[in-house]
Structure formats: structure tokens, C-alpha cells
Amino acid sequence: MTRKPHDHYLHLRERHPALLTAVEALGNAANAAGPLNQKTLHLVQLAAAAAIKSHGATHSHAIRALEAGATPDEVRHAVLALTSTIGYPSMAAAMSWVDDVLEKGY
């Protein structure tokens, strides 16, 4: 059975709670270290996830950006803008992962 990205995260959290608590604390500290709002931070993290070809993180940050107030067009634009940086094939793959999220109605 294939796990969904969030299910995998929950499984890791269950197996390694101290590690995941530390990872979350690091992320919270990084997010609090500057002036960017949550929506912008998640769009930046979405772009980074797409750039490293992380399917799960791309899904996660697309959802988080939407929850923080980003529109579907803003989420798509954050990925589309990567075309000249990461190349068309990588951008297209990441866009398909974003479309997975958007088609589920997040």
C-alpha cells in the first residue's frame, strides 16, 4: 500500500517523535526569523520543494500556502516562475503535484 505524503509524515512522527519535534522547532524558528508572512513563506518553501523534486513537500507546501491564504493562481505561479531556473520538465512535474492538490479541492 502506498502512503500519502501526510501519512508518511504522521508515521515518522509516531516512530521518531523527538526528532520530528526538533525538526518542527527548527522550521518554526526559521519562519519567525524574518518579516515574511506565512503565505509568502509557504510559497517560497513550495518553490524550494519543487526545485529539489520533492513530491511530498510540494504537496505539503501547496496545501499550507492555500491554508495561509494563497490563491490557486498564486500557488501555480510560484511553480511556473521556476521554469527558467529548474527547467521545464522539473517545473511540469511539480505543477502536476500542485494540480493533484488543487483538484482535491484544497
Looking at the structure, the CATH topology of the largest domain is AhpD-like
Q: What is the β-strand count?
A: 0
Q: Structural class of the helices, strands and pairings?
A: mainly alpha
In helices, the fraction of residues equals over 70%
CATH top level of the largest domain is Mainly Alpha
Strand content: under 5%
Helix-strand topology string: HHHHHHH
Instruction: Give the CATH H-level superfamily of the largest domain.
Output: AhpD-like
What oligomeric state best describes the polypeptide chains here? single chain
If you compute it from the alpha carbons, what radius of gyration comes out, rounded to the nearest whole angstrom? 14 Å
State the low-pLDDT regions, or none: none
Q: Could you describe the largest sheet, including whether it forms a barrel?
A: none
**What's the number of structural domains?**
2
Whole-number mean pLDDT = 93
Keywords:
106 residues; 7 helices; mainly alpha; single chain; globular; AhpD-like
Folded structure, characterized:
The chain folds into 2 domains: 1-34; 37-106, Up-down Bundle (AhpD-like). Helices cover 78% and strands 0% of the residues. The protein has 7 helices and no strands. The two termini are 24 Å apart.
Short description:
This protein is an all-alpha fold and 106 residues long. It is 78% helix and 0% strand. The protein has seven helices and no strands.
